[in-house]
Amino acid sequence: MIVISDLNDDNVLDIVVASIGFDVVGVLFGYVDGSVIEQTAYSTRTGSDLIAVAIGDFNTDNKLDIVVVDFLDGNIVVLLQNGSRPFQSMCILLGHGDGIVMKQIIYAIDNGSKSYSVAVGDFNSDTILDIAVANFGSNDVRILLGYGNGNFSIRASYSTGDLSGPPSIAIADFHRDYFLGIAVANWNSKDVVLLYGKGDSTFEKPYSYWMGYGSVLSTVAIDDFNRDYWTDISVANYGTSHAGIRLQTCDNI
Questions:
Q1: What is the value of pTM for the model shown?
Q2: CA 246/CA 177 separation, integer angstroms
Q3: Torsions phi, psi for 81 (to 5 deg)
Q4: Are residues 172 and 231 in the same domain?
Q5: Which helix (H) or strand (E) is 208 found in, with range?
Q6: Which residues form the signal peptide (predicted)?
């Protein structure tokens, strides 16, 4: 997975890469002419398996940081802190604006969670970035609230349905109430689940939208596709080899 942003404040876009089967985050810093320098690799931990990446300023220093999700367990540091129980891990790399990552913090997600996707936004209206993680193995979304100094607290989890298997999430203000909600694509249950945010880090009861027989949803994306100022949802449907779109009318998708 890749994301694109200006990591070193030179007004040129850079590329961040997290690759399955590798235990490093790759950063390719861009030049004005469109070329990039050779990849700079930042190690997470030996044996990690990176599957998702997102960017945000997690310690309110106006410099972009990186969050990556490790699909596998086996984080030795986490195991030492929690006895013999294996954990899923989330790794946050803090930057200082010149493209050099300087600090690594690891947060443990429950055993068997198989974290698969990550999104960043302010879920409790304190102007500080928080993190949402889709967990394919435990069939839920976990919220981590930020303190603004690079540290997070792991809060509630929200079910996406029994055996749903969510591989992808996206966030948006669905109700135009300035509160962020979460859209979840489910691989196994053939539906999109919406969690409408209340602006206090909690969410309403999930709404499920079935995408049809044969659907196997791999990715969800959000935008206003028909220019009516309401947020719509698009999903990549691996099962039918199609892209599906659900248009929102007023408060309903």
A1: 0.87
A2: 20
A3: -80, -20
A4: yes
A5: strand 207-210
A6: none
